[in-house]
Prior knowledge:
It is an enzyme of class 6 (ligase). By secondary structure, the chain is α/β, with parallel strands linked by helices.
Amino acid sequence: MPKTSTDSAKIDWLLKHAVENIYPSKEAFKKRLLSGEQLTFYYGIDPTGPTLHLGHMITMKKLAELQKLGHKIILLIGDFTAMIGDPTDKSATRKQLTREQVLENCKRYKKQAACILDFKGKNPVDLKYNSKWLAKMNFADIVDLASHFTVQQLLERDMFENRMKESKPIYMHEFMYPLMQGYDSVAMNVDGEVGGNDQTFNMLAGRTLLKQVKGKEKYVITNALLADATGKKMGKTEGNMIALTDSPEDMYGKVMSWTDGMIVPGYRLCTDLPEVDVKDIAKKIEAGENPMVFKRDLAYRIVVWLEGEESADQAAEHFTSIHSKHELPAEIPEHKVSSPRILLVDALVESRLCSSKTDARRLISQGAVRVDDEIFTDYDAELFVEKTGLIIQKGKRHFVKLIV
């Protein structure tokens, strides 16, 4: 049997970080992981578009943690289920895709996923397509599959309940979707599945089916979707969805366009920052510190994760130049700081933009101080100086660039 890691610290991180729910329970799953047995987990993606995006990467990040512990990982391309159309979170029926459209969409998925998952080495990710078993099913197989579920169970889905209340149609092929996704678990004989919380119903359908057909437990790990406190999500309709084909500059800029309410969830889901640090950031924002400082830091971390440090440096510099070029002089004096974190008042005094802290507080309260082209009115604000530097402006003519 292949050796897996039972490092309790790594397992605790896996169970807590960016996880919303674990079924049947976190305790049962932890006990199984500590047994040292190699388990098989999968993540399924329906190729409804030509590129993977940050939402996929958040889930793959959890999958990568399982792979590093030594467990078997499957990345499943739902080339058959994509033609049906997942009704999840849809108030109307999805447009069904052709076989040709589906195959065109997923051509580059493996290459894109390789920035998170390891498809080589001693424990490579296994890439599978669910048409291999679903396309072979006959009508008798489908009837047998349907016999494991009741209409009442399927009608419990929120989107179906809402459509019925609004007198909108629910088509039979939409009913069949969770059954077919559930059958993926049986066909691959997995031990667990990872996915967003919007897929909970579908993933639990697989758990039900695996128990009934093979008498086997299936663990389901869900992560939250990236959204602000009002429920506003990152996505195509908002124009801020980060695709893996985006340039580093576009990735950075899209994070900067997120609502302030997405900053803390972004740290939780897209970085490895400890929860104590995330809570500290949340308190600072709530206390009135400029959220733009943290949004820049988050944007930088996300680009580092997806594209590397050099690309992130260039993206941050590009953003600064684009958003400040209309006011920046050709030459700006630099001031070195001993730590990347410094109070705005201290930075103004140390860089000699202000003669005293009293002078600095007066100018800040008057709205005469900008940091990277953003007006700061909180003189208790703490700045974070990135590698690319941070530009402070006093009035219209006085500038200094803080560097570490």
